């Protein structure tokens, strides 16, 4: 039976030719071995250099951060400068390691230039965030520690904890991190709640038309004078704001320390309700009177 397999005898094999090719391969490996070993050694050294210099970069950044903080530089500027410096230092490290591995400087520069253009086109939003971060640090609409409100649709608010090269991080009142791109933040209306040491507190409350307006205003004035967080050296105003459909709307305005704004507002709201109840001042609420007529 023909199995399709051709028998090969030793006479058909040219042993001298095979031996000659094997010798050529061996000689080639011997010639390339120093280069391969040298390249492997350079790679190992490059890895060691990268690890050592990475530690050095971290140390330099720590020293830089401490120096800027001692110089009373704004915390946001410190964070932004450290973020940029980290990227620049690592790029220089990679550039030098590539050259040490035999890559030509012109090739590395061309590669970085091409990569920069490609990344720039692909990440236009990222570049906008960098530019936005620079604008935020130059004009300083807020600093780290300020409480801000991003006044736009689906806006965010919280205390500023970090200003990086691309993003600004807020801490919300319920302890959540809110990360906003710098480009978005720079193009938004920003309300800096804690920019000033004092804020004007305004509270409005409605009383029934049957209640004594002068008595109600006297109670409000007394509460403003008595409260520990209101500034008695600044203007205090109690006024009739509106004659509404079902209530007379009284208002008060007083200056308080920014840090005490919410405690003062909550306390005054509670005290107003308690004093009005004790003094017989009625606070009306929306209700509907239904009159039923029986038709015989």
Detailed description of the structure:
Helix content is 52%, strand content 17%. The protein has 296 residues and is an alpha+beta fold. A five-stranded antiparallel β-sheet has the order 4-3-2-1-5. Strands 6-8-7 form a three-stranded antiparallel β-sheet, covered by helices on one side. It is elongated and about 125 Å long.
List the helices and strands and how they pair.
Elements (H helix, E strand, L loop, with lengths): L14 H56 L4 H26 L4 H18 L1 H16 L7 E4 L6 E7 L3 E5 L5 E5 H5 L3 E3 L5 E10 L5 H14 L10 E7 L4 E10 L3 H19 L17
Antiparallel strand pairs: 1-2, 1-5, 2-3, 3-4, 6-8, 7-8
Helix pairs in contact: 1-2, 3-4, 6-7
Structure described in brief:
With 296 residues, the chain is an alpha+beta fold. The protein has seven helices and eight strands; from the N terminus they run ααααββββαββαββα.
Instruction: Report the strand count.
Output: 8
Main sheet summary: 5 strands, antiparallel
Oligomeric state as shown? single chain
Order of strands across the widest beta sheet? 4-3-2-1-5
Percent range of helical residues: 40-55%
Distance between the termini: 120 Å
Strand content: 15-25%
Principal-axes shape call: elongated
Radius of gyration: 38 Å
Q: If helices are DSSP runs of H or I spanning 4 or more residues, what is the number of helices?
A: 7
Give helix and strand order, one letter per element, not per position.
HHHHEEEEHEEHEEH
Q: Which structural class should the secondary elements be placed in?
A: alpha+beta
- Average pLDDT reading: 81
Query: Poorly predicted ranges (pLDDT <50, ≥5 residues)?
Result: none
